[in-house]
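Readers of this paper often ask what the protein records in our data store actually look like. This encoding replaces a full spatial description with a residue-level series of whole-number codes. For reference, a complete record is included directly beneath this paragraph.
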Amino acid sequence: MAKPSLKASPQGAQVAKQALLRSGLTQQELRSQVGCSRQPLTNFFKGDAIAQTLFIRICEHLGLSWREIADLPPSPAEFVALSTENPTADLRSTPFDRGADIALPYPPPSNGTGQPTKIDLGTAPNLTTFYGREAELKFLTQAILQRHTALVVLLGLRGMGKTTLAIKLVESIKQEFDHVIWRSLAYNPPPPLTQLLADLLQSFSNRDIGSLSQAVDDRISQLLTDLRQNRCLLVLDNAESLMQDHALAGAYRPGYEDYRELFRRIGTERHQSCLILTTRETPREIAELEARDFPVSLLSVMGLAENDAYQLLEAKGLGDRTYWNTLIEIFQGNPLVLQIVAATIQRSFGGQVSLFLKQATITTRQIVDLLDQQFDSLSPLEREIMYWLAVQPQPLAFAELKELIDASGADLLDALESLLRRSLIQGEAAFTLQPVVRQYVINEFTQQQLSLELTHVRNSIQHLLVQNSRSAPATEQ
């Protein structure tokens, strides 16, 4: 009798790959921990069938539920066999949340008081169009309403739709809460924590700001009291504004380090509320809380699924449907970038995708603007890694990068992990760039080289003029 087997669904395989990236393991390290050869692990991530017991072991090492990853639920006979072989298998956790089994002493959030939800959306943008994201909305809804997740992070590149997803989520579950509060941190400078806390505390109960303690710790404690006494959905949009430029991902700007304590306490202390952060880079303490199985969930917001991206392009009235797949692949389904490119194709190429794809460059001024801010925030070592990955046609492994870059192994590893946390590079044992990011980096590199050459020419001309002035004969009087 053949042994039972399982295979990952297409979505499950993608979730597993993301979990591997978050774990920081290479496939070789995972193989060693699981105790299997290369081929079964390769088959697992490809979505091919492997032995049931091995499938479960891999999922457990990645912090995933095998039932959420598997393509089909096991038959009754297989389920009995599974329970016998592995009675401790986690059947309740979800692909994205390793802290799903932590029980809190509060019931699931629901506004059962009969009082209307108090909604304070602040500067939240209006939602005009929305495409797909059914799986993400289902996961987030279950995480917040059923599994009592205290802190949710929506992570992704600019334009991936983090804010849009958060707005759609708020609209769908807002009636389950006593308070819904949305605040944007996208200011320069962003609001100091003491100012934000005063704003939030006043939104809860119209407190007199003058009566509040000036100590940040006291204000955080008062906010936690409100989050225990009320069922609140709190959204802080664009949390990357708190982060330091030219440093590794997750380091705070000077003067904003106290936000670390706010996020830590919301993620670890008991309450019946939920904080949602949207960000391009994850604060380090939040990644640590998730790793320690606190009720914290990190969701990487990736590009739109192919069918959803098709709906977006169709709404923009583009022609040449046979080239749409290429367009979606180049821009990795990034909804904002696809909208920008679609508008460019309509204006400059009569809506014909094939004409646009024939051009030498795939970056427009607006796309460059989207990437500029994120690229400018990188540390020098992160920039160097990006340049090498851009000019190499094949993915580079850690050892290959170590040969190319003059840095210690520890510093190089920290920089790689930082770029992964920013979603700027992709890969497992070897790393590469998305096509549009690669084109952007190559353009940046070319411009910098040209700038250096021009500076060298100017300096040479200046030096020649000085030498000529010194050697010129004096004018006769």
Remarks:
- The chain has 21 helices and eleven strands.
